[in-house]
Amino acid sequence: MWIDGLKIHRVTSWLITLFSFITIFLGYAATRRWFPDYDLFLFLHLITGWIFPGALIVHFTFSIRYLNFRWSRIITALKKDNTSSTITLRLFQKITKWGIIVMAFLISLSGLSYYPPVNPISFPFIVNFLPFTLHVDFDILLSIFMIVHVGIGARFYLTRKKLNHWSINLSLVFLIPSLTLVVIFIDLPPGLGDSGISIGGNFYEFEPNEIESVRPDLFQNGSFSAYDILVHLNSTGEISLSSHFNNSMDTFVINSINGNSDNWWYHIYYSGGSIENNVVRMDHYPWKPGTRIVMYHESESYINAAFSLFTEEVSRYAFNNNTIIIPRVNISGHSFSEEFYNVTVIPHNLRNETFQNDVITAMDVIMTLGDLGNITYELTWHESFRGASYVHSYFVSKINTDEAVGRCGYLYEVSNSYIFLSADEQILTSPESVKFFWGCL
User: Fold this and answer.
1) Which is the most buried residue in 53, 121, 147, 364, by most CB within 10 A?
2) What is the per-residue burial (b if ≥16 Cβ within 10 Å, else e) of 268-303?
3) Model's pTM, two decimal places?
4) What is the pLDDT of residues 179-203, one digit of tens each?
5) 8 A C-beta contact, residue 341 and residue 328
């Protein structure tokens, strides 16, 4: 049976290109939460991540079997004085091909840390020497190799089609470095930028050291919430804010901003984050350098659902004699899943440079379970993350025997709401449930 190896080689090369860029895009879409259904994008990322090495194996097999690209021929040709640009490009094509193969192999190995069976005990080599933190680094190198390799391949393809005009060559020369720079800069952490808030399409700057909190029961002097920024801008006359404190929800409610009373709500995210929906009281959400805040109009049903949740929490808190008792707490790691009921949470004042003493956060749930002897845990302080210039928070790095590895560790939900707010920064009123679970960022 006759096989057109060259044709299969070229078809699989474009399949590899397609799947590699799709896989990388889906990975960023999931971890950066570019779209609401990030779980779907993570699932698709995992699927294409397995298809990609399969196509690479087929491509590599046919390259070796049917094509006569030998290092010796290329090196010998390069030593000649009249070396053509074609030989030089062939050399770079071969180098980048091997770069792609090596990076694909390393990406696959480092990505295995995402899966629960791959842990420090069962696969110490992968976890210790190829941790998940390197997964993105290898992604960047793979993308660069792919861009150069595809650019050279496109050059040869156009030559075969007799499209060899100088403008096409110039376009490729411009396009390859440009795409390479995009790949590099997209993963750099953003600068902190100016402190400001967007309201109805207008951006307002402020000086953080001029803001005082209207919730001194929650925040220490020098710390403040997202809501306090609105109060400050109102005091300077830059906006007109009408609001009132609702005791049954334990929060300030916005009546209107600049005369507009259409269901104001807010998006907020820290350095390295992205827009996400939340059901957190705005006067409970702490501000820190690098925070982005956008005031917008939300649907009435969304606002009502949030207010209903707030009311339920305050009622539960009052029913329990002003004590936070969480009906259900779930802790899940690599190797275990435990459920606890009616957990009375006590304050540990872990972040008393930000919050007043006895303010309870989601991290106090973990620390309380540790006090009770139900779990063992370790916390780690992070000044910054890759992609986040300013973090300054504690994270759960180990529960029982399951330890965080690279970008994989313990995330959490409060009343089934999952947002990128560190557990030591989310104030609890009296939620229905809290869940800490294993995941990757």
Assistant:
1) 364
2) bbbbbbeeeebbbbbbbbbbbebbbbbbeebeeeeb
3) 0.71
4) 778 777 766 655 556 678 999 889 9
5) yes
